[in-house]
Amino acid sequence: MALVRLVSSVRRMLQPPQWSFFPQVQLEVLPGVHLPEESVEDADDDALWHACPKSKVTRSRKRIRNNDPSKRLKNIVHLQDCEHCGDKKLRHRLCMGCFKKGVYFTS
C-alpha cells in the first residue's frame, strides 16, 4: 500500500502542469510495475483535511484553556530564615544579602 502511494505521488510530481508552454513528455513505467488506480489519489486528498478545525475557537474557550490552574505559577512555600542575617531565602540556596557582604567567604 505504501509503495502504491509512493509511485502515485512520484507520478504526480513528474507530470508537468497543464498551463506549461513546454511540450509534454510521456513517462514510461518499468515493465511489471502497475500504476495504481485514481481512487488511491482521492484517499490521499482526504487526509489533507484532518488538521483543519471545523470552526473558530471562541475567546472564552481559549481563555478557559490557557488559564487552567495547573498552568499558573505556583506560590513559593519553601522559604527559610538565613542563619547569619535572618533574611528570607530559598531552601538550599545562598542568602543574597550575606553573599554580597561576603559573609560566606569570611566565616
UniProtKB/TrEMBL annotation:
Keywords assigned: Mitochondrion, Ribonucleoprotein, Ribosomal protein, Transit peptide
Record keyword Ribosomal protein present: yes
Domain of life: Eukaryota
Protein's UniProt name: Large ribosomal subunit protein bL32m
Originating species: Aphanomyces invadans
InterPro entries attached to this UniProt entry: Mitoribosomal_protein_bL32, Ribosomal_bL32, Ribosomal_zn-bd
Keyword Hydrolase appears in the UniProt entry: no
Main location as per UniProt: mitochondrion
Subcellular location: Mitochondrion
Classification via PANTHER family: 39S RIBOSOMAL PROTEIN L32, MITOCHONDRIAL, LARGE RIBOSOMAL SUBUNIT PROTEIN BL32M
GO cellular component, one term: mitochondrial large ribosomal subunit
Family statement drawn from the similarity comment of this UniProt entry: Belongs to the bacterial ribosomal protein bL32 family.
GO terms classed as biological process: translation
One Pfam family here: Ribosomal_L32p
Gene Ontology MF annotations: structural constituent of ribosome
